[in-house]
């Protein structure tokens, strides 16, 4: 048998999964469908089926949310981490892979599925080539809908679709919504007030393990493209992974003054179905208490700059929302802490190639 331990951020959920060695490695594609993105706040999710296991969610203080008559998803009621999917037709349980203590040699990442929902390809445009344990490289595939023997994304299709997407940088607000609608808010375009925020540099730009994050001149790094867009990036840190349940968390860095409730009032962290989890001293995370979507990250050190989950943003212009966001391509934040090292290396290499037009 091959065993893994899955843990959420608060440790209310700790689960040991045993797999037959003959069943390993599991081939898995990240799901990029609209429901998964709005349910997680992320850019792609992954689960692995458990062999003949019955789970009692009440044992782990999990909240269930049914996304269809066939699927119920369970997340930690305390920290918001997605843990299980229950597939009703076969009464099977599937474990979120971002919580695992190891995946190398156990999961063989094959690419992305349901790319059609993203309109612009989403994260799949960065996941091009992945290295195996022996160092050999293979192509990551992209399926329009379900993976397997189904239709792959035709060459050039995403580029042609992206050109046709409605792009209007004059749009004054961008809607954000979790899957259940319990959390809704809007972003506004940067203003002069957006420049008055003070913040150190993020690990995304200045790796904390090797550099100082100090920003004595208060460079407004969160504002991009002549102060018309916000910086966005991907994170692989332990806290994000264990608080979401998935390997990659995409964040947009937005001043609090540019986040409004649906009624136009300033952001209120207690509005709607928002729940808060303090992942470390002075560090706060909000998630939807009804569907489990990761929503915000913020801290006492920079209270006026908020990390917003990109998966919640209106994807009518594409999942990467490039009308509003400028993606950082030099690094995946805290990539050195990744558990799925081959997947994060694939993402990091793909980001760099994308920057160069590759």
Give a verbal description of the structure:
- This protein has 4 helices and 23 strands.
- The model has no long low-confidence stretch (mean pLDDT 94).
- It is globular, with a radius of gyration of 19 Å.
- Strand 7 and strand 8 form a beta hairpin.
- The chain is mainly beta.
- The strands form 6 sheets. Strands 15, 16, 17, 19, 20, 21, 22 and 23 form an 8-stranded mixed sheet that branches. A 5-stranded antiparallel sheet has the order 4-8-7-6-5, with no helix packed on it.
- Helix content is 10%, strand content 32%.
String of helices and strands: EEEHEEEEEEEEEHEEEEHEEEEEEEH
Tally of extended strands?
23
Mean pLDDT across all amino acids: 94
Structural class assignment: mainly beta
Bin the helical content. 10-25%
Helical segment tally? Answer: 4
Shape field: globular
Looking at this protein, list some descriptive labels:
358 residues; mainly beta; eight-stranded mixed beta sheet; five-stranded antiparallel beta sheet; 10% helix; 32% strand; globular
Concise overview:
By secondary structure, the chain is mainly beta. It contains 4 helices and 23 strands.
Secondary structure blueprint with pairings:
Blueprint: E1 2-7, E2 14-19, E3 26-31, H1 34-40, E4 47-49, E5 62-66, E6 71-76, E7 82-87, E8 92-96, E9 107-113, E10 129-131, E11 137-139, E12 141-142, H2 157-164, E13 173-177, E14 184-188, E15 223-224, E16 229-235, H3 238-244, E17 249-255, E18 259-261, E19 274-280, E20 283-288, E21 294-299, E22 305-309, E23 325-327, H4 341-355
Parallel strand pairs: 3-9, 9-12, 16-23
Antiparallel strand pairs: 1-2, 4-8, 5-6, 6-7, 7-8, 10-11, 13-14, 14-18, 15-16, 16-17, 17-22, 19-20, 20-21, 21-22
């Amino acid at each position: 048998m091959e065993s893994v331990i899955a843990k959420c951020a608060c440790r209310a959920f700790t689960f040991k999964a045993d797999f037959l060695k003959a069943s390993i490695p599991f081939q898995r594609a990240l799901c990029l469908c609209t429901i998964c993105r709005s349910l997680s706040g992320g850019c792609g999710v992954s689960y692995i089926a458990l062999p003949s296991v019955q789970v009692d969610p009440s044992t782990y203080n999990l909240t269930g949310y049914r996304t269809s008559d066939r699927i119920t998803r369970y997340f930690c009621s305390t920290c918001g981490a997605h843990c299980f999917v229950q597939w009703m037709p076969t009464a099977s349980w599937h474990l979120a892979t971002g919580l695992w203590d190891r995946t190398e040699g156990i999961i063989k990442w094959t690419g992305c599925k349901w790319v059609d929902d993203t309109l612009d390809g989403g994260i799949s445009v960065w996941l091009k080539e992945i290295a195996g344990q022996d160092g050999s490289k293979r192509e990551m595939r992209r399926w329009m809908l379900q993976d397997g023997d189904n239709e792959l994304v035709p060459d050039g299709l995403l580029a042609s679709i992206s050109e046709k997407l409605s792009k209007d940088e004059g749009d004054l607000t961008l809607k954000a919504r979790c899957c259940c609608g319990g959390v809704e808010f809007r972003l506004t375009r940067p203003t002069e007030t957006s420049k008055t925020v003070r913040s150190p540099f993020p690990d995304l730009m200045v790796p904390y393990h090797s550099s100082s994050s100090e920003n004595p001149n208060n460079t407004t790094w969160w504002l991009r493209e002549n102060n018309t867009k916000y910086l966005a990036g991907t994170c692989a840190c332990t806290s994000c992974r264990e608080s979401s349940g998935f390997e990659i968390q995409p964040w947009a860095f937005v001043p609090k003054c540019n986040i409004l409730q649906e009624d136009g009032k300033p952001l209120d962290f207690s509005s709607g179905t928002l729940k808060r989890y303090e992942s470390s001293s002075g560090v706060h995370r909000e998630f939807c208490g009804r569907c489990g979507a990761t929503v915000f990250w913020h801290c006492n050190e920079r209270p006026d700059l908020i990390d917003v989950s990109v998966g919640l943003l209106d994807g009518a212009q594409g999942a990467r929302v490039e009308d509003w966001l400028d993606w950082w391509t030099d690094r995946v934040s805290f990539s050195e802490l990744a558990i799925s090292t081959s997947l994060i290396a694939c993402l990091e290499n793909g980001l760099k190639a994308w920057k160069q037009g590759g």
